[in-house]
Fold:
Amino acid sequence: MSRPRAHLVVTGSELVRGERTDLNGPFLARQALALGFEPARISIVGDRPDELAAALAEGVRADLCLVSGGLGPTHDDRTLELLCRAAGVELMHDPELEARIEGISRGYAERTGRPYAVYAPGVRKQALVPAGGFAVGLAGTAPGILLPLPGDRAAIALPGPPNELKALWPKAIAHPAFAPLLRRAEVPGRRVLRFYGVGESLVASTFADAGGDGDGVEVTICARDFEIHVDLVVEPGEQARARADRIEQALLAAHSEQLFSRDERPIEELVLELCRARGLTLGAAESCTGGLVGGRLTSVPGSSDVFLGGIVAYANTVKAAVLGVPAETLAAHGAVSAETAAAMAQGARRVLGVDVAVSVTGVAGPGGGSDDRPVGLVHFNAVGPGGALAQSWVVPTDRETIRRRAGATALHLVLQLLSGV
Amino acid sequence: MSRPRAHLVVTGSELVRGERTDLNGPFLARQALALGFEPARISIVGDRPDELAAALAEGVRADLCLVSGGLGPTHDDRTLELLCRAAGVELMHDPELEARIEGISRGYAERTGRPYAVYAPGVRKQALVPAGGFAVGLAGTAPGILLPLPGDRAAIALPGPPNELKALWPKAIAHPAFAPLLRRAEVPGRRVLRFYGVGESLVASTFADAGGDGDGVEVTICARDFEIHVDLVVEPGEQARARADRIEQALLAAHSEQLFSRDERPIEELVLELCRARGLTLGAAESCTGGLVGGRLTSVPGSSDVFLGGIVAYANTVKAAVLGVPAETLAAHGAVSAETAAAMAQGARRVLGVDVAVSVTGVAGPGGGSDDRPVGLVHFNAVGPGGALAQSWVVPTDRETIRRRAGATALHLVLQLLSGV
Structure:
């Protein structure tokens, strides 16, 4: 692969200790990838100078070094000092930048009624720019810094608060001094195949039979709640494109019935869109998932025109009283049964007044399993104007996984019902 | 601080490209910290052998190298091969481990009706263990690996799926071969304070007034969905303990009314426990959260004796037909109003036959806001045998944040109702 390499350095003690999840690394990685860089590493370090210095020393060896955090006004914000040391340049005072930051800080001082002297040392610190580098803009009083490096390479340092980082990123990459590096990157092609109901090993063996990775095509195969996500990253050029075509065709030929999408939208979005296209409303009856199916569907903005609501029927009393599951069905077959799942879906359709309803009932564990109904047994039913579709599986894992997979299966069952598979 | 240094290496192309957010690094960092290690760096790399090799070469220089991912059966799962190269040991075939993995894979083959030959190459690959290392257990067919290193150091490699990693982690650190490194770490004391309904800056200023960090006490203050999580990490020794006592007392004195917990159990667990102790059943009526409140409550094993169910009343038709919200309430005050929230909670209590019900209705956005009812406005109501409690807030952020915070608020409202606050 000939993509210029990007190394991301994220600093924050709460991040390296796992007390907060880093969002800047993933954001910058997606941005770099879209520009044609290969995000090769994300290094998360705390504010200990030796750890940050080591990470930056490695970072500046990449074609593009992206740094998040450590640009604040206090003494433990050392990113620029250590970046300069890693790049072998001086940190210089920028009087024009200081004037701008001072203006903002005097505004703060006025609003808070504190003397400007409180802010002055921080202002001087934040007005330091690496020699040969540029302040590309300000977020609050923190500048975004672009530092061109020898060999058409560059480092960009941005403030840690995600909204400030996102605000300054476009200014950094639009700066004229970034253009030489940008010209080295070619935006790669990307192809996406999403399968459901086929094993990861089987997809991997189809892929291996088609020749595997190489020649400008990188493939990742990733299992996620019974979905198999196949991503092809394709270098520019005829040869790579032809190879990607062959791999894609081999996968489609072998697993055409399991293909459910060729883009990255999650299943809840596909379900909502298919319902919308058919003019159908949707509802859910959930037992072991406890609301996760509704939660996923309503995570999509604008879902309210399709998804009208759901019944979380966790207790049998609710299955009977709200969904109208007959007492004899519960008595004869139990709450976790194909019969109860069917009655739940029909009940939800009626009670919620929806065109299509899907139900889930299962044993999520860790307790509550039996020989007849082990932990990991889940029954599903989807019912619509054209008929119904039932499914069940037993995959004993942990409670969280069983519930998450059950939610995914319920959504795929609706897709299958409406696709007439 | 003299804590042994931990370096975490997380592998996954989808992680380094920002297509998925890494959860294993933060989990392992928190675990390492709790054992007395200092999480010094998290390196996230893809499955390119050169990048993974470089990260592992650095990783094995730390006292503890924790590796996540790349243990699967496919060609691009190269963690053990490269870990062995970094540590200078051979990768050996383990016939006993192969027999165990084969047993599991034959079970898969039977259930899926596929020939075992499809699985055989993956089984052979997953039965490789570094010389001098140990398979500490299996998650599915993926082993967790412990590799002791010279100088009472160690590397631990675990599968990438978070639930598998979490399942194997306790087995790795309980292995006798990990004991020498564990003895080098001194488990720090840990104190936890959880506040709700007070600002992060106010807690931070109380903490600063009490003397701040130092003298063997490290404090992190972290805001999470309106909760303020304060964690004290306390080095062994009398001096640090006394200092931690002073900080703890200052925080308790200033914010006693906002304290809701002194341990790490999530709010859903506290709510279920309080209901259980009072012999009360619980239900929910959700609009903008779409099932997330039920989803959180049912994430807790054994929740079924307290939580009977919920109504996801996303559409007004469902609010009226299922929850019995009067048409005139909806017409006069709108779906997002204190009046509708109250009627939803009362309806849920009646329809679900529960002692306590909580409701949520709001504008999660990004569309659907108005001057009267802006994006980020959410109304809540909790009703129980002793009365009702209403709440509302307007905090315009993004859809996901609004929904997550609304779910947390609903749970805290139940806690407040039952605590008589």
